[in-house]
């Protein structure tokens, strides 16, 4: 019997897609101009390759990604400049992050039937930056516990540690919870490796290239579908 639902935050409860797109677009232009390169295509292909590799390795620090990019083109990077860019990057993401239209109402209803918890990654923000979640106190109060993976010695998802820690805090067994997330590798496979049943949210308002399933899991396109867990 399901007694708790654990959620991811970004792109699961809140939509940051426009913020990430604009932040990436802005910083790509800055880096390209700063490195004084001739070929935009070579630059963007290399950048995307490095960014994807780092994401797959659960490294979300923009500065480390950019440092590797500069090294690939044999350019010297300015750590202070990159620090400023990273602050601007996350401010852009935060300014364009908003809960999905149904989020608050669905959480309110679910709380009447289940314990609700949250596991979200730091996403490589500078240490001086607070998590985007703190911008939405109307959502924070639904969750106990809330685990920020990647901080305080807790490794980021897809490591199993934050999932198992959440179970411990909920005082529930693996078969008593489900995990809802949007990222196939970080959320879905992370939950599976921790022995937790996942639900993959491919929200209909998010435009992205979704990866192919490598194992069969339930898929939803709107948080309202969680109101009927038996159907899911």
Task: Write a structural description.
With 232 residues, this protein is α/β, with parallel strands linked by helices. It folds into two domains: 4-15 and 98-228, HAD superfamily/HAD-like (Rossmann fold); 18-95. Helices cover 42% and strands 13% of the residues. The protein has eight helices and eight strands. It has helices spanning 17-35, 40-56, 62-72, 79-95, 103-110, 137-140, 160-170, 184-193, and strands spanning 4-7, 14-15, 98-99, 115-121, 146-149, 177-181, 197-201, 219-220. Strands 5-4-1-6-7-8 form a six-stranded parallel sheet, covered by helices on one side. Strands 2-3 form a two-stranded antiparallel sheet. β6 (177-181), α8 and β7 (197-201) form a beta-alpha-beta unit. α1 (17-35) runs antiparallel to α4 (79-95). The longest helix is centred in the N-terminal third of the chain and has 19 residues, at 17-35. The protein is elongated and about 60 Å long. The two termini are 14 Å apart. The model has no long low-confidence stretch (mean pLDDT 92).
Please give a handful of descriptors for the protein shown:
232 residues; alpha/beta; Rossmann fold; six-stranded parallel β-sheet; two-stranded antiparallel sheet; 8 helices
């Amino acid at each position: 019997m399901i007694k708790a639902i654990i959620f991811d935050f970004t792109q699961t409860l809140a939509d940051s897609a426009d913020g990430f797109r604009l932040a990436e677009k802005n910083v790509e232009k800055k880096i390209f101009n700063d490195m004084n390169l001739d070929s935009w295509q070579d630059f963007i292909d290399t950048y995307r390759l490095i960014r994807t590799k780092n994401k797959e390795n659960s490294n979300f620090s923009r500065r480390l990604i950019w440092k590797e990019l500069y090294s690939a083109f044999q350019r010297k990077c300015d750590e202070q400049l990159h620090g400023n860019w990273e602050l601007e990057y996350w401010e852009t993401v935060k300014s364009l992050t908003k809960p999905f239209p149904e989020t608050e109402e669905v959480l309110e209803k679910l709380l009447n039937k289940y314990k609700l918890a949250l596991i979200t990654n730091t996403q490589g923000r500078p240490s001086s930056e607070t998590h985007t979640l703190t911008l939405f106190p109307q959502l924070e109060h639904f969750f106990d516990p809330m685990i920020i993976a990647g901080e305080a010695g807790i490794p980021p998802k897809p490591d199993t540690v934050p999932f198992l820690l959440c179970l411990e805090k909920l005082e529930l067994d693996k078969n008593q919870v489900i995990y809802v997330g949007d990222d196939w590798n970080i959320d879905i496979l992370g939950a599976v490796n921790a022995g937790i049943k996942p639900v993959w949210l491919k929200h209909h308002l998010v435009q992205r290239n979704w990866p192919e399933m490598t194992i069969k899991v339930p898929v939803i396109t709107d948080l309202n579908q969680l109101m009927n867990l038996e159907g899911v």
